[in-house]
């Protein structure tokens, strides 16, 4: 008797269970504006391999050049976890013909099916990659040395891959380019970032990126391409020799024919992409990562001006069955005729050789039945076989999502080129958590923003009018609308109001009523701006607006300057429905800058206004979220004094800001250190040294070795902490004046005040705390 037991594997077999979805900017997952839960056409623009229910209806935003956009997504099979190997690749593309289209049908393959025989210009259809990208792909030889396991590829062009053996077309995406990265041929996609389990591959990714490295491709005469458009055999070679050997027409005599041209396709000519470890996420979980934080990447939008761009995110996972990155897993292991793939899944599991494994079903093929015991004790069943749910097209698999189109625009003239602009958007769609899944409910992105006066917040959102009509939500069925209104102040103190110190707390996330906004403010925005955000007045003239129904889906407040500090909490009055749904957010505006940067093996810099932390390659062996705060001497002195540590700091002056770095514990590899550079506040004359303390302690201070380079102090450390430089005489001060004042003030009040020597600097000191070095 032969027993066959089906074991559901953790890994998904059918497309329906696995996925990666882009939530901000709104990922389409091939959806356009369908009024139902499922998208109409999973092949519309690209191959997502995702669940039909994912995606948001079309809607576009316009981001400012150089602004910071928090990209958010969910990925289902973990990253930076040993359970699978993972790469997340973020890219974008801009092009005059890039568009969302107005039909859910896939753009035709044949020009004869497009208006005026020109699919590029037929704007009815959504299009990302241009027509020629696909034409070239389908006529180009596939990379023959790829491992395809036991998949029967239906052809030899680049549209056939292990993951797409039937050569199915999705938009004008090239399946081979989709499945492999870095790709050996030209690609219209520009790389933003690569997040990977194995950051030691980063130098390779960065060198191979099409941002910086040109590719070569074979160009054949257009007539030849057109004559062979429906050829089943690829005609475009992928090597120089084969390319240049082509003569058209084939029977051309005496060198009269045209030859194939093997030519360089220039790199995009932009900086190499960011590359580092990804943050950890668990498998079989389509949600937040560690500490409940959404999986995200902060993208600084490139400094360009383009109305039609689109973002692409890919999620490449491979299992432990084979190492796809070793050159040893290649076409030599593919199925040949009747002989199965010879990928070794036998000796790894304790069999003497491939044949011994084969006898027991340990073969890399679809749904093998393995005999785990050889012989089941107590029975005479020699062949107790367990069937494994293995699809060799998917062991090693890439998911994808893309945004709808968006614009990147020049900053308004009144926003300085160097000012930080932070995008504040709305993610999610109408419905309750079940109805929107695998999308998400409404939320503001980023949910918490940290900023400082002088930065700009660019509030902007869009939505759809065609969500399913029965999805839960307020206002007109099927519609997305949002607004922003500050929340009422707390009725009870949440755990430790000291968290908010020294800033005022405005509103509380636990409240569901907006604040009486008659007299108060929000980050210093004008009353007109607040009113506009609340009732969308600039986008809608009158109408029934209690639930914003008469407004449009798109709202843009333009970048607004932050001029005040404080913790501000706000809500959307329409969508917030306690306890079914909540749409609230928070902006923390501090007087001193805080920089957050994730640094891993690759190294990099954490930069703030007067400090830089520099990590060379290999200083860290894991991804570390590094936070660098700067405290002015005034604030730092207050904190030190409050702890009773002031007497332990030698000298009389603060020569730098306090630079407070977390994590505080040592986080470097072995004896490796990172460099800290802090600007001196004044030209220094009598520096005593740099001192370190635990930021929670501030009593015990230890002197560090440091050197002065120009106007900077430079030292190396292996841990965070509070660092500050002390001096006896500050360069900007006349010692005599100071001593006289000290004596005077000590006599008078017991407190110490220092003044600058230059009267003309006095004004700048009173109007701005930062840079007023030495004042205590
Ligand atoms: C996915 O990983 C495989 C190795 O397992 C690699 O060959 C391929 O290029 C990767 N594809 C992408 C899109 O990252
Ligand atoms: C390409 O087209 C020409 C002219 O129709 C034909 O002779 C040739 O066989 C085609 N090549 C292939 C590889 O199909
Ligand atoms: C993005 O930036 C915000 C604030 O600037 C920070 O809190 C967050 O951790 C950053 N996210 C990542 C993934 O680096
Ligand atoms: C293909 O893999 C085999 C072993 O599996 C290896 O010996 C060979 O060098 C590889 N070929 C290439 C071109 O990488
Ligand atoms: C709040 O949500 C619940 C559940 O979706 C719904 O029944 C109720 O009508 C909503 N409230 C309003 C004012 O729409
Ligand atoms: C909305 O919340 C109320 C109160 O918690 C609950 O009774 C109701 O079932 C929820 N409605 C939906 C549709 O989830």
Structural class: alpha+beta
Query: What is the number of strand segments?
Result: 40
Main sheet summary: 7 strands, mixed
Hetero compounds: 2-acetamido-2-deoxy-beta-D-glucopyranose
CATH top-level class of the domain at 411-589: Mainly Beta
DSSP helix fraction: 10-25%
Q: Radius of gyration, Cα only, in angstroms? A: 31 Å
End-to-end distance: 88 Å
Principal-axis shape: globular
Low-confidence segments, ≥5 residues, pLDDT <50? 1-16, 731-776
% residues in beta strands? 25-35%
The pLDDT mean sits at: 89
Supply the CATH architecture of the domain at 411-589. Answer: Sandwich
The CATH topology of the domain at 411-589 is given as Immunoglobulin-like
Describe this structure in words.
The chain has 11 helices and 40 strands. By secondary structure, it is of the alpha+beta class. Among the domains are: 323-389, no CATH class; 411-589, Immunoglobulin-like; 595-729, Sandwich (Chondroitinase Ac, Chain A, domain 3); 732-771. The strands form 10 sheets. Strands 3, 6, 7, 12, 15, 18 and 19 form a 7-stranded mixed β-sheet that branches. Strands 29, 32, 33, 34, 36, 37 and 40 form a 7-stranded antiparallel β-sheet that branches. Strands 22, 24, 25, 27 and 28 form a 5-stranded mixed β-sheet that branches. β38 and β39 (712-717) form a beta hairpin. Residues 1-16 and 731-776 have low confidence and may be disordered. One 2-acetamido-2-deoxy-beta-D-glucopyranose binds next to loops.
């Amino acid at each position: 008797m032969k027993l066959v037991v089906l074991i559901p594997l953790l890994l998904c077999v059918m497309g329906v269970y696995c996925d990666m979805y882009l939530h901000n900017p709104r990922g389409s997952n091939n959806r356009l504006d369908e009024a139902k839960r499922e998208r109409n056409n999973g092949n519309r623009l690209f191959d997502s391999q995702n669940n039909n229910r994912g995606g948001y209806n079309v809607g576009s935003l316009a981001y400012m050049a150089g602004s910071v956009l928090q990209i958010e997504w969910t990925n289902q099979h973990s990253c930076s976890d040993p359970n699978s190997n993972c790469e997340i690749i973020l890219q974008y593309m801009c092009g005059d013909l890039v568009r969302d289209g107005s039909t859910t049908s896939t753009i035709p393959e044949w020009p004869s099916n497009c208006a005026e025989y020109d699919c590029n210009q037929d704007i009815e259809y959504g299009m990302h990659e241009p027509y020629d990208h696909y034409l070239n792909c389908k006529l180009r030889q596939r990379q023959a040395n790829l491992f395809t396991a036991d998949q029967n590829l239906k052809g030899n062009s680049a549209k056939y891959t292990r993951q797409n053996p039937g050569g199915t077309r999705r938009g004008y995406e090239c399946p081979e380019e989709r499945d492999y990265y870095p790709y050996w041929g030209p690609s219209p996609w520009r790389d933003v970032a690569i997040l990977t389990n194995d950051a030691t591959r980063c130098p390779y990714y960065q060198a191979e990126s099409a941002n910086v490295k040109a590719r070569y491709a074979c160009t054949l005469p257009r007539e030849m391409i057109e004559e062979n458009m429906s050829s089943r055999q690829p005609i475009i070679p992928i090597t120089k020799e084969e390319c240049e050997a082509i003569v058209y027409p084939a029977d051309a005599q005496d060198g009269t024919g045209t030859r194939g041209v093997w030519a360089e396709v220039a790199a995009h000519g932009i900086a190499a992409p960011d590359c580092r470890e990804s943050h950890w996420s668990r498998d079989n979980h389509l949600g937040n990562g560690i500490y409940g934080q959404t999986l995200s990447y902060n993208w600084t939008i490139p400094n360009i001006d383009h109305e039609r761009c689109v973002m692409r995110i890919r999620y490449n996972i491979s299992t432990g069955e084979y190492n796809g990155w070793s050159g040893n897993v290649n076409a030599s292991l593919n199925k040949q005729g009747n002989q199965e793939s010879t990928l070794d899944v036998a000796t790894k599991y304790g069999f003497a050789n491939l044949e011994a494994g084969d006898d027991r079903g340990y073969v890399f093929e679809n749904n093998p039945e393995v005999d785990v015991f050889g012989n089941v004790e107590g029975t005479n069943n020699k062949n107790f076989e367990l069937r494994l749910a293995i699809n060799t097209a998917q062991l090693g698999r890439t998911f994808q999502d893309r945004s709808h189109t968006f614009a990147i625009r020049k900053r308004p003239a009144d926003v300085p080129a160097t000012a930080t602009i932070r995008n504040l958007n709305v993610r999610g769609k109408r419905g309750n958590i079940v109805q929107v899944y695998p999308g998400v409910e409404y939320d503001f992105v980023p949910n918490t923003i940290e900023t400082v006066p002088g930065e700009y917040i660019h509030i902007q959102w869009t939505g759809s009018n065609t969500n399913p009509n029965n999805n839960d939500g307020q206002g007109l069925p099927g519609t997305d609308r949002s607004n922003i209104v500050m929340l009422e102040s707390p009725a009870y103190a949440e755990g430790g109001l000291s968290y908010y110190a020294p800033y005022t707390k405005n509103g509380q996330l636990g409240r569901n009523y907006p604040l009486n906004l008659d007299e108060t403010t929000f980050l210093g925005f004008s009353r007109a701006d607040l009113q506009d955000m609340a009732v969308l007045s600039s986008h809608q003239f009158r109408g029934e607006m209690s639930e914003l129904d008469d407004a449009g889906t798109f709202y843009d407040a333009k970048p607004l300057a932050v001029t005040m500090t404080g913790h501000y909490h706000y809500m959307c009055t329409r969508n917030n429905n306690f306890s079914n749904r909540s749409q609230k957010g928070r902006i923390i505006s501090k007087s001193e800058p805080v920089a957050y940067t994730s640094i891993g093996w690759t190294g990099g810099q954490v930069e703030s206004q007067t400090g830089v932390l520099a990590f060379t390659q290999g200083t860290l062996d894991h991804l570390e979220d590094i936070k660098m705060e700067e405290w002015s001497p005034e604030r730092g002195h207050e904190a030190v004094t409050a702890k009773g540590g002031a007497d332990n700091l030698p000298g009389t002056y603060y020569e730098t800001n306090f630079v407070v770095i977390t994590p505080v514990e040592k986080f470097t590899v072995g004896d490796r250190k990172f460099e800290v550079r802090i600007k001196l506040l004044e030209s220094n004359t009598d520096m005593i040294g740099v001192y370190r303390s635990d930021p929670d302690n501030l009593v015990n201070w230890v002197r560090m070795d440091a050197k002065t380079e120009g106007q900077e102090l430079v030292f190396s450390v292996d841990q965070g902490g509070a660092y500050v430089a002390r001096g006896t005489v500050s360069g900007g001060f006349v010692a005599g004046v100071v001593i006289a004042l000290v004596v005077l003030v000590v006599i008078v009040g017991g407190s110490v005040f220092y003044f600058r020597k230059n009267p003309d600097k006095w004004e700048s000191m009173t109007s701005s705390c930062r840079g007023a070095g030495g004042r205590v």
